[in-house]
# Entry
Amino acid sequence: MKSIAIYNLKGGVGKTTSAVNLAWCAAAVSARRTLLWDLDPQGAASHLIGDDTAVKDEARSIFARDVAAHKLVRASRVPGIDLLAADHSLRSLDRMLFDLGKAKRLKKLLDGLAKYYDRIILDCPPGLSETSDQVLRAADLVIVPIIPSPLSQRAFVEVQAYLDARSGRHAPMLPVFVMVDRRRALHKQALERFPEWPVIPMASAVERMAEERQPVGAFDAKGPAAQAYLKLWQGIERKLAE
# Structure
């Protein structure tokens, strides 16, 4: 099993859409047993592909050892993707993890799910917190969606500096340009500065995900966004195999 976290210090940079689309690639393209674990209290990923079953205070109970993680997994609306849904109880997760003093709690939970899944995609909340700290050390790879702007790129540098200052040991990080409009000078400059970073273009299909409640590959497989996510996933699989 390999775990891939989708994380950024900033919000509104396409973490959830990236998580859902990469989970679809893992399940539909690579035929991996795939789990999408929504760790964001806002629960956007859970809404996008969940079955709208009402849950209350379940998400945090996994960390408190009230219930085994695999017992709360349910099938999503997307074939091949299982879901560990978020709920409002995750708002107090940081405090609970701090009080427990269990720096590797998430790592142990992921290890416990390893016999059920080949790939676990973690949709992470923004910010630097106890939750993100555990994610960044437990995951095998961290995907960092970045809008081509100076502020977003600065946030990526800040995360790297923070992690290096803490211990110097963390999962490899792969920055990915998202919402890219090559007609914009600022975006073109960013792509020229970091030509090796993968690129996800601005596309109407990504905006339609909220309406379709499906990954772009499920309803617009030949579109530029779906093809870009497919290329990104193929690169992720190569990196995980190294």
